[in-house]
Amino acid sequence: VVAPDWFATSTAWIERLRTIEIDLEAGILGLAADLTKRSRADLLTYASTAVVALIASLVGSVIVHRALNGGVRRLSEAMEHVARKEFDAPVEGTDSKTELGELSRSLVVMRDDLAKADESLKEAYTMSFAFGDSDAAMVIVGPDLAVQTMNQAAHDLFRDQIENFRHVWPS
After folding, report:
1. 132, 151 in Cβ contact below 8 A?
2. Angle at the Cα of 68 (from 67 to 70), degrees rounded to 5?
3. What is the distance between the alpha carbons of residues 91 and 74, in angstroms, rounded to a whole number?
4. Beta-carbon contacts of residue 111 (< 8 Å; ≥ 6 apart)
């Protein structure tokens, strides 16, 4: 092989390698551009999905918060009515099957018991003025005619007149 032929053959071979290198580089850059484009699209999809999920979570949290807070607020208002002895105020949520419904039903039972106790206390208070402080002898008997209570004047009368009562009603 003569030098000019060898040089021409080597140059042609180098030029073919250079062409292959340029084609390979273009292919790799094309693949890289496609991957970049797909990655950006995937990133946009994932980010959009995350934002939608975050918004849905926030909306769901607000709805649940309002539902729970509303029930607790209504129960608290009903308790305030009971504390002010407004026993006829309604208690909402007693038909609910949740813990708040159970608390509401318990509040109704407690309210009714407190109303009865308050009524008994008012009767006792009224009776103490009309009955206990009176100088007249007073006795309260039940439906079976058993003595339920008597004031001090009645007690003194029975004590002082016990012998006379025994003649009228012997034991």
Report:
1. yes
2. 65
3. 8
4. 78, 82, 87, 91
Residue 55 buriedness (CB in 10 A; 0-12 / 13-18 / 19+) = exposed
Per-residue pLDDT tens digits of the chain, which is 171 residues long: 688 889 999 999 999 999 999 999 999 999 999 999 999 999 999 999 999 999 999 999 999 888 778 888 889 999 999 999 999 999 998 998 988 899 999 999 999 999 999 988 888 777 776 676 778 888 888 889 888 888 888 889 989 998 888 888 766
Q: Could you please report the per-residue DSSP string of 64-79?
A: HHHHHHHHHHHHHHHH
Q: Can you say whether the dihedral through the CA atoms of 143, 149, 150, 156 is positive or negative?
A: positive
Locate tokens 């009524």: which residue? 119
CA gap 40, 168 in Å, rounded: 112
**Token pair for residue 68?**
């729970």
Distance CA(5)–CA(70), nearest Å, equals: 96
Which DSSP string corresponds to 2-62?
-HHHHHHHHHHHHHHHHHHHHHHHHHHHHHHHHHHHHHHHHHHHHHHHHHHHHHHHHHHHH
Integer-rounded Cα Rg, in Å, for the chain is: 49
